[in-house]
Amino acid sequence: MKKSDLDQSAAMRTAPPSDDGYPNSSARRRWITGWAAASGVAASPLTEAAARSNLAFRPAVFDASDGGALVNVFGVRAIDVHVRWAALTARDPLVLTERSKVVSLTATTDFSAAIELQNLPAATTIAYAVYAGDSACSDIQRFRTPPAPSARSNFTLAFSGDVEARCRPFRVFDSIAAKAPDCFLHLGDTVYADIPRREFSPTLEHYRRKHTEIRSDRSLQSFLANTATVAIWDDHEIENDANGSHPAIDVADRVFREYWPVRAASGASASASDRKGLFRQLSFGKDLDLFVLDTRSFRSPQADAQSANKTMLGTGQREWFRRAYRASSARYRLIATSVPFHGSSQDAWGNYEHERDDLIALFRDAFERHQAKTVLLSADYHFAREWPRNERHGIYEFMAGPLASFASFSRDAQMKARHSRGSHFVYGEGANFGLLHYDAGMDKLRVSYFDDGGNQLFTRDI
């Protein structure tokens, strides 16, 4: 057994209980009780309020854009639920007057659902709660909608990736919440399903159990309930360095969508041989578009020889992205890629050089024609850095992470030395996140980095 597995097993025994007031389902209660008994840790008793609750976790908000959003709900039994919401104003009392459709929570989806909210006003704070009939199942939570696609408005996006259950509690989310971002971009490795290796089993039950460990964290629940989040997966939701041929990718995709739901890509189409994929586009006002790339579902095996056919995105997603990127009129085009675009490792874009070169040409053309700047946001390497800027062609990349996992520089001094050459920003000593703020009045994009305590590390104006 590896030392890393021993360390992670020990850390698992200190896992906190789920949030008070939101009990685990019967299956989740059995898992926590069994874990506590095996480890000699007393499980916290459920409060009376928790025993009456119909929800396993606080609700969470995803993919708020273009007048819509998804509210992620996890129940403890089969029940019909809906979401009530209202736009907050200074003069009106808080009454949740609007209602979503009623959705049934069933065992097929582990009593989870993504409830769609429609006709949300732009750039507005939305209050919402989950109901079963006329009984509230959750406290009132709040999130902010982005500006309308035609509006020029300020906007703040936080971003980072990499979260391991052994690193609970996830206090970094309290620090991100204190910055009050309009949206959070989770850049993958939302769970480490394959760690520890001796426990890994690529099954529906295993993937659900690992995601449950993550979502049970109190700070994360509070954050997701009150900050609209956009999430994409990387490899550890499936298995280390997974590609599109992994035999469990469909099962992993199913569970990922249960915990990190996505709205369909606008205008997306894929070939018959392609899976649906997790890629999509979101608008954050006239000047900001976000393109979320799925770098796992369709990628060729890493060991394949370099050729024009070797792909990170797959034919359908690549065609969708090229069309959507060209059709965008945004001055700043943000691209979420779970692996670094400038990275040269086997698992990064440098191992898919033909496709990367094709995208670089796309970005250069947009800058030459429209002065549109491309800002790539990435994670995966477990340290933060500003990759080389190409201001001549308007291409930038900012990598962040980890949120709650090991820091690369603490394990590999050579990596620290290699990535610290030059005058660019790099930080690999601990957890971190990035904050991208668009100032509409000054037409300026500022990217800042913070450690897990919220202390500023670096800032760059674009």
Overview of this protein structure:
This protein has 462 residues and is of the alpha+beta class. The chain has three domains: 3-52, no CATH class; 60-144, Purple acid phosphatase-like, N-terminal (Immunoglobulin-like, Sandwich); 155-461, Purple Acid Phosphatase, chain A, domain 2, CATH 3.60.21.70. The chain contains eleven helices and 22 strands. It has a seven-stranded mixed β-sheet with strand order 13-14-15-16-18-17-19, covered by helices on one side. Strands 3, 4, 5, 7, 8 and 9 form a six-stranded antiparallel β-sheet that branches. Strand 15 (332-336), helix 9 and strand 16 form a beta-alpha-beta unit. Helix 5 runs parallel beside helix 7. It is globular, with a radius of gyration of 21 Å. The N and C termini lie far apart (48 Å). 48% of the residues are buried.
Task: Give a summary of the structure in a few sentences.
By secondary structure, the chain is of the alpha+beta class. The protein has helices at 3-12, 26-39, 48-52, 172-178, 204-215, 218-226, 249-259, 315-327, 353-370, 408-411, 413-419, and strands at residues 60-65, 68-74, 79-87, 98-99, 103-105, 112-117, 125-132, 135-136, 141-144, 155-160, 183-186, 228-231, 280-283, 288-292, 332-336, 373-378, 384-386, 395-399, 426-427, 432-439, 444-451, 456-461.
Number of strands: 22
**How much beta, percentage-wise?**
15-25%
Under CATH, the homologous superfamily of the largest domain reads Alkaline phosphatase D (PhoD)
Q: CATH architecture of the largest domain, please?
A: 4-Layer Sandwich
